[in-house]
Amino acid sequence: MSTIRPSSDLRNNYSEISAFCHKYKEPVYITKNGHGDLEVISIETYEKLVGKFELYKLLDEGVDAMQKKKVRPFK
Q: Which family is it part of (predicted)?
């Protein structure tokens, strides 16, 4: 479930936003003048997300290599 907070909450309720991100491992969306502006996530969640992207990239490279017959024998 998305959590949306105004930008003033970053200044006034930073600890609450930080605790939420760490506890639920979900982002908090920050609005500015009623429009979406930022997404705040914990470093742990960010690193996990980046790790997934890196894995997907490597898997995609492997699939591409297989399709182009650029593979090496297992032995």
A: Belongs to the phD/YefM antitoxin family.
Q: What is the DSSP string of the chain?
A: --EEEETHHHHHSHHHHHHHHHHH---EEEEETTEEEEEE--HHHHHHHHHHHHHHHHHHHHHHHHHTT------
User: pTM of the full predicted structure?
Assistant: 0.76
Q: How far apart are alpha carbons 14 and 20 in whole angstroms?
A: 10
Determine whether domain 3-67 maps to CATH 3.40.1620.10: yes
The token duo for 34 is 């009623």
Distance separating alpha carbons of residues 62 and 53, to the nearest angstrom: 14
Question: pLDDT, tens digit, for every residue of 46-71?
Answer: 999 999 999 999 999 999 999 998 87
Degrees, nearest 5: CA angle 3-40-4: 20
